[in-house]
Amino acid sequence: xxxxxxxxxxxxxxxxxxxxxxxxxxxxxxxxxxxxxxxxxxxxxxxxxxxxxxxxxxxxxxxxxxxxxxxxxxxxxxxxxxxxxxxxxxxxxxxxxxxxxxxxxxxxxxxxxxxxxxxxxxxxxxxxxxxxxxxxxxxxxxxxxxxxxxxxxxxxxxxxxxxxxxxxxxxxxxxxxxxxxxxxxxxxxxxxxxxxxxx
Length: 199
What we know:
about 10% helix; signal; Porin; OMP/PagP_B-barrel; Outer membrane protein beta-barrel domain-containing protein; mainly beta
């Protein structure tokens, strides 16, 4: 949590200072939306289903040329996956694996035409919480777990359209190159869609 707080505080301080400086050239804003998070795996987890949750955070864009910018972000991201495990007599138990992160992407952004851009780059995920919720006809509850690695190196990319008033809409896909669980072929896979506003 100390690392998470330091990341958030540092980024917020830089972004606010940049936004207030006439010479900085930075654009500063906020963004949020919905995640459709899942995992890719070759092990015996069966066919996991996506967990729907939200993301929200800050964004700072530094234009370098007319059509090219660098963009940094820091945001909270609810991720994980769901799965159903058959029991006996047509019973099943539903598990929701909840893994929540502070995500820090560093993106190269290219404007195809005015307002419409593509962006891609590395993303650094810092786990802040992890739990498993379970639900069956006999029992409902949740437990804290600590099986997922605390750091996840990912790649992310997507499309964005920014209106003249500063409002923008975007969609992205993120894939994790790190093993989520040590020595297991399990990786992050997240589709996200949302909107934001540049001040």
